[in-house]
């Protein structure tokens, strides 16, 4: 597949992920002992604070994910120009790995706190989401390593010609 076609396909995926992420951020509703809650209608008097605390928390941990999509978009810019294997892209992916790892840690700590406060009863669902995040983080770390090696080989190849 040509670099431009692949770049366009990845960009379409990035846009789709961003739209789905925004929809989740806008429509997400905390889960509690009463199941799914919609607005203040299902909330008891004392649950409004925990409702908004969880929503704001999810918005905060979602922001780095949108930044990661922007970094991926920048990598596709270089891919479109035929310059995928450069040290700058390797650095972007490594940086994205560290951002995702930190965001994942914040996500786990926040949901552990919510579980200890008995604000959500679906802790296992959030642990599954964190496991998926860990798998993506490890994958990004591997991609960063191989991008770095490919950039070294590209540089050596260009130097010998």
**First CA to last CA: what distance?**
25 Å
Secondary structural class: mainly alpha
Give the overall pLDDT as a whole number. Answer: 85
Strand order of the largest sheet: 1-2
Strand residue percentage: under 5%
Helix count, DSSP H or I runs of 4 or more residues: 4
* Helix proportion range: over 70%
| Overall 3D form | elongated
List the uncertain runs. 33-41
What is Rg?
20 Å
How many strand segments? 2
What order do the helices and strands follow? HEEHHH
Sheet having the most strands: 2 strands, antiparallel
Description:
- There is one protein chain.
- The chain has 161 residues and is mainly α.
- It has 4 helices and 2 strands; from the N terminus they run αββααα.
- The chain has helices at 3-27, 48-80, 87-116, 123-160, and strands spanning 31-32, 35-36.
- A two-stranded antiparallel ribbon has the order 1-2.
- A hairpin with a 2-residue loop joins strand 1 (31-32) and strand 2 (35-36).
- Helix 1 (3-27) runs antiparallel to helix 2 and helix 2 packs antiparallel against helix 3 (87-116).
- Mean pLDDT is 85; it is low at 33-41.
